[in-house]
Design goal:
With about 650 residues, this protein is an alpha/beta fold. The protein is built from 19 helices and 16 strands. The chain has two domains: about 220 residues, 3-Layer(aba) Sandwich (Rossmann fold), CATH 3.40.50; about 240 residues, Rossmann fold, CATH 3.40.50. The strands form three sheets. The chain has an eight-stranded mixed β-sheet with strand order 5-2-1-6-7-8-9-10, with helices on both faces. It has a six-stranded parallel β-sheet with strand order 13-12-11-14-15-16. The structure holds 1,4-dihydronicotinamide adenine dinucleotide and uridine-5'-diphosphate-glucuronic acid. This is Nucleotide sugar dehydrogenase.
């Protein structure tokens, strides 16, 4: 594939939908010049004689794509920059309606609080500090600066910066199916931007994309608006679902990739200023476009690799006397290794790890580096191996006979504190269990209503148009764990929701504050003339901590600065779903003794996330199987 001059000439992602005669997108021909990412000569002199270009301050940002990344990211940018108008646009009307309602389409701890401040504005208030001197803090009112709309062209036309945050799944058909990235949504979004944006708009890749996509974006813009200047940046997002708000408020780093031309660097500087209102400059890293695009794929691949690595060790623990949590702790204390992402379980899920590794593998293989591709592919193989190991354990402990038995599943989302079920390991687990013909598979998840779970099952687990849902099939979704587990022979924990832990957690983490942050203890921080939004967050945490109730609840307003939320229309399905919990509070820890009382002997619990203490559960009458930990089972080969 390498040509004689060493210039690469293969493609990472074949053309997905564009109807022009352009080459497949994006291509992997590195820009000829190592200094600038324009189509210039190899001896480009731009880098040597750079004129200084300064972009005007950003006053208006439009985010295209109101999903799990676009919505929270735009909300935090708006929250931290009251002087910038931020719009979030999407083609999906229902999604935008939800963003404008009290039922946000994305469930994230703390998100509603951030959205209410930025979307609805705040009242002026005076706070009496709960300290010895009862000092007063005055908070001015704030105008709304976050808007959700389906009017893509109008919002794009008004923007100085457009963040493209649309879905980039793996291709499911055609050339590269199951490996390459489907850039159809990105292409359509960039086409809308090309048609409406004003000259000089900075177009930012927020989506995770194959290397070389910035160049594809440039081609699309040029195709529709020849001669009009646009700058393209890569600014990948590193938030994790369930902790999105904390990740956005306290990012480890902000990565900005740009072309190394004066205008590219100036565009990067303009975007840097937007983040600099709350992120230290030392954490804002500027690199070239390729490095930025590749770094995002590599970050996800390496996180997933750690999970697969520890999961292989859990398989060894399962057959020896070692305990995987003890092994993780022992190695994680080595600062070179670190303690994060060493939690063994039934494997990772979610919409990104698999697709981003596949994208990396596709890139490596298209660069004729099969060994590199195989190496990363093994991370995915181990993930499947681990999930299969878990289900096989369930079936074998139940004597290979699930007929006539009820199996309860606790957790359907791919991780805790989200309503996202994309690529959840639960889907494959349920498919395998179905083949064993159990009497019932009963599902409960604190993040999804039974209606949502049923819709998901029909979408993903349906075979030859026959629904596995009751009454035709054995699958049923419940609104609480007690009904789901009632009369069951086994409970499978598939998502590490805190509610399922045993023993229960003493206190849940704040959605806004880092656990090592001591500033909340010091009220002096609030006694200054102008408070930033971060100061106000800390103030609200301070007031919360000083109040009698330490519980973080959605819609809580410790500073009394929020406006009332809009009322829902009568018969709102989401309000009804919220009340379907049959009197059981979703945030309450599961009463495992109550579950044990109503289960069939021998009361199996298969802990796919290692979140219950087997010994303690044994005392409640359960038999427990975990992943790589001593459960209630026959002695292992090397037990002493
Ligand atoms: N979900 C996550 O935690 C993270 C995702 N990412 C990346 O961010 C990107 C977005 O991911 P999600 O937010 O999870 O996806 P999502 O599917 O939740 O949201 C994408 C949104 O874009 C909209 N959209 C598609 N084409 C459009 C168009 N032409 N015009 C306007 N709107 C359009 C869709 O209707 C959808 O609402 C992906 O590339 C993903 O890999 C990156 C970091 C974290
Ligand atoms: O690009 C993305 O989409 C994002 O992907 C992941 O975030 P996310 O998938 O939302 O959540 P993670 O916390 O990474 O968890 C992913 C899966 O791994 C599992 N996991 C995580 C950690 C661990 O130690 N063990 C483990 O099995 C989780 O249960 C979950 O199923 C990355 O953590 C983010 O940095 C990245 O921005």
């Amino acid at each position: 594939m390498s040509s004689s001059d060493g210039v690469l000439s293969d493609y990472s992602t074949p053309q997905t939908s564009i109807g022009s005669s352009r080459s497949p997108t994006p291509d992997l021909i590195p820009d000829k010049c190592p200094n600038c990412f324009d189509d210039c000569d190899i001896n480009c002199s731009k880098s040597g004689q750079r004129e200084r270009v300064v972009f005007p301050a950003v006053g208006n940002i439009c985010c295209v794509g109101a999903g799990y990344v676009g919505g929270p990211t735009a909300a935090v940018i708006a929250f931290q920059n009251p002087g910038i108008q931020v719009s979030v646009v999407d083609l999906d009307e229902a999604r935008i309606r939800k963003w404008n309602s009290r039922h946000l389409p994305v469930h994230e701890p703390g998100l509603i609080d951030i959205v209410r401040v930025a979307r609805d504005g705040t009242k002026a208030t005076e706070i009496t500090l709960s300290n010895d001197d009862n000092e007063k803090v005055v908070l001015p009112s704030r105008e709304p600066n976050l808007f959700f709309s389906t009017n893509v062209s109008e919002c794009v036309a008004a923007a100085d910066v457009v963040l493209v945050s649309v879905n980039t799944p793996t291709k499911s058909s055609g050339i590269g199916a199951g490996a390459a990235t489907n850039l159809a949504a990105l292409e359509s979004a960039v086409t809308s931007v090309a048609q409406a944006a004003k000259p000089g708009t900075v177009v930012v890749e927020k989506s995770t994309v194959p290397c070389g996509t910035a160049r594809t974006i440039r081609e699309i813009l040029t195709l529709h608006r020849p001669g009009v200047p646009f700058e393209i940046l890569s600014n990948p997002e590193f938030l994790a679902e369930g902790t999105a708000i904390k990740d956005l408020l306290y990012p480890d780093r902000i990565l900005i990739g740009s072309s190394q031309t004066p205008t590219g660097l100036a565009a990067a500087a303009a975007l840097k200023k937007v983040y600099a209102t709350w992120v230290k400059p030392s954490k804002i890293v500027t690199v070239n476009l390729w490095s930025s695009e590749l770094a995002k794929l590599v970050a996800n691949a390496m996180l997933a690799q750690r999970i697969s690595s520890i999961n292989t060790i859990s398989a060894i623990c399962d057959q020896t006397g070692a305990d995987i949590d003890e092994v993780s702790k022992a190695i994680g204390l080595d600062q070179r290794l670190g303690s994060k992402f060493l939690k063994a379980g039934l494997g990772f899920g979610g919409s990104c790890f698999k697709k981003d590794i596949l994208s990396l593998v596709y890139l490596a293989r298209s660069l004729h580096l099969p060994e590199v591709g195989d190496y990363w592919m093994s991370v995915l193989s181990i993930n499947e191996f681990q999930r299969d190991r878990f289900v096989n354990k369930v079936v074998s402990k139940l004597n290979g006979a699930l007929v006539g038995k009820k199996i309860a599943i606790l957790g359907y989302t791919f991780k805790q504190d989200t309503n996202d079920t994309r690529e959840s390991p639960a889907i494959e687990v349920i498919k395998t269990l179905l083949a064993e013909r159990p009497a019932e598979i009963a599902i409960f998840d604190p993040g999804c209503s039974p209606t949502e779970v049923r819709q998901e099952i029909n979408r993903h687990v349906c075979s030859s148009n026959a629904t596995p849902l009751k009454p035709q099939g054995p699958v049923e979704a419940y609104s609480n764990s007690y009904d789901a587990c009632f009369d069951s022979s086994a409970v499978l924990i598939l998502t590490p929701w805190d509610q399922f832990r045993y023993p229960a957690l003493a206190q849940k983490d704040s959605a806004f504050r880092k656990s090592d942050d001591q500033s909340v203890e010091n009220p002096q921080a609030f006694l200054k003339p102008v408070l930033s939004e971060m100061d106000i967050i800390t103030l609200s945490e301070y007031q919360r901590a000083k109040s009698t109730s330490h519980v973080m609840t959605a819609n809580s307003d410790p500073l009394s600065r929020l406006f009332n939320q809009v009322e829902c229309p009568p018969g709102c399905i989401h309000c009804q779903n919220a009340h379907q919990a049959d009197g059981v509070k979703m945030s309450e820890s599961v009463d495992w003794a109550r579950i044990a009382y109503n289960m069939k002997e021998p009361k199996w619990v298969f802990d796919g996330r290692n979140i219950v203490d087997a010994k303690g559960m044994e005392a409640l009458g359960f038999r427990v199987e975990s992943m790589g930990k001593a459960g209630t089972r026959s002695p292992r080969a090397f037990d002493v």
